[in-house]
Write a structure and sequence with these properties.
Layout (H helix, E strand, L loop, with lengths): L7 H11 L3 H21 L3 H10 L13 H9 L4 H9 L13 H21 L11 H9 L9 H11 L3 H13 L16
Helix pairs in contact: 1-3, 2-3, 2-6, 2-9, 3-5, 4-5, 6-7, 6-8, 6-9, 7-9
Bound molecules: fe (ii) ion (FE2) (2 copies).
Length: 196
Amino acid sequence: MAETKPCREEAFSLLKKYNKNEGLIKHALAVEAVMRYCARKRGRDEEMWGVIGLIHDLDYEQFPDQHCRKTEEILTCENWPTDYIRAVLSHGWGICTDVEPQSDLEKVLFAVDELTGLVTATVLVRPSRSVLDMNAKSVKKKWKDKSFAAGVNREVIEKGAEMLGIDVGELISDVIMGMREVAGEIGLRGDPNVSG
Ligand SMILES: [Fe+2]
Ligand SMILES: [Fe+2]
């Protein structure tokens, strides 16, 4: 069968078929939004970047021990194009796959995935619980505190930024900008009446 570009609707219904956990859906939406923001910033294919961001952890709820590999199987069955599948696999480079990020899309996905977790954790300890009034400085402070959101692998993020040739501060700003666009959907709109 000829490969056609998967659309956002198809990706989202597949995501919901395999994931019931609200936190995982919110993570997928956050990564999608950041990928879209970064694609626009770079003048790239926003739909493709967004769809890959949305689907990247497809198998994580049901097959955490086969993370990435199971997604490869599912997307292959669904006739997804090989470049989409490769991009998804590359986010697990050095962790659960040996597919090294090569394209800009792959490098951005690798770099921002963990960072969305640190940004979310930082928002949730703020009085406003809002990503809309938070800047990169707040996240940088938490970055240094290794006991804060200890599960977030700072080394992976640093490696991603290095691959992209940008500093972590710029990456953090991009992630915040992307996540702001879906603040309501990912539960990070907070209380506008509380500042800080
Ligand atoms: Fe993952
Ligand atoms: Fe992820």
